[in-house]
Amino acid sequence: MKATFLLGTLKKSGLSNTETLCEFLSRRMESQGIECDVIRLVDHHIPPGTHSNMGPDDEWPALLARLLSSEIVIFATPIWWDHQSSLIQRVIERLDEIHDKVLSGEPSPLEGKVAGIVITGDSDGAQHIIGNLCNFFNAIGLLIPPYATLSVLWERQAKSATPNKEELLKKYESDYASTADKMIRQLVRFAAQ
After folding, report:
1. What Cα–Cα distance (Å) separates residue 30 from each residue in 34, 172, 184?
2. For the domain 2-191, what is the CATH code?
């Protein structure tokens, strides 16, 4: 079984809370035999648009192929002004062509795959993002099982905070290990159906 993470951190370099939480979750998934592919969207040229291919320098078609080869799809985002990152929004826009196909009566290439959500931030907004993403998943044929979200809202993840990676991983392990494991169980259970 394979899981692909679409990591929406805006940080080109340096410590990313969202990337560290993805690392925490993917390690737990890999320990259960799930192959994990974490795609840092910020490292790829994904031009704006609503089609699967926007030209010769567009890296999205190759990323979409990686996504389609997975049984599990994870959208991972920080909270910015009560919304998902602009890179996750870009992915939604680029997947709009799949939604157009669904509306015209064609099957979605994502149908039968399960989705999960990873969110980091220092204040509320996770419920709003989860609602938006779940609505989008539903529209393109992705199944979101119960308990398939992992949200860490902690003041040490504020933009002005300077935690180190060890501090973040310790927090995630001590406070979120059981939530992560429950999420993994649900994703695997529904992906296997």
Report:
1. 5, 17, 10
2. 3.40.50.360
pLDDT tens profile 157-192 = 888 889 999 999 999 999 999 999 999 999 999 998
Helix or strand holding residue 7 (H, E): strand 2-7
Mean pLDDT of 136-151: 97
CA distance 110 to 75: 14
In whole angstroms, what is the distance from residue 105 CA to residue 186 CA? 29
Distance CA 17, CA 30 (A): 20
Tell me the whole-structure pTM to 2 decimals: 0.96
How far are the Cα atoms of 46, 127, 145, 154 from residue 83, in angstroms, in the given order? 20, 10, 22, 16
Q: What percent of the chain has pLDDT over 90?
A: 91
What are the sequence ranges of the domains in the chain?
A: 2-191
- HSE-up (13 A, CA, CB side) for residue 68: 12
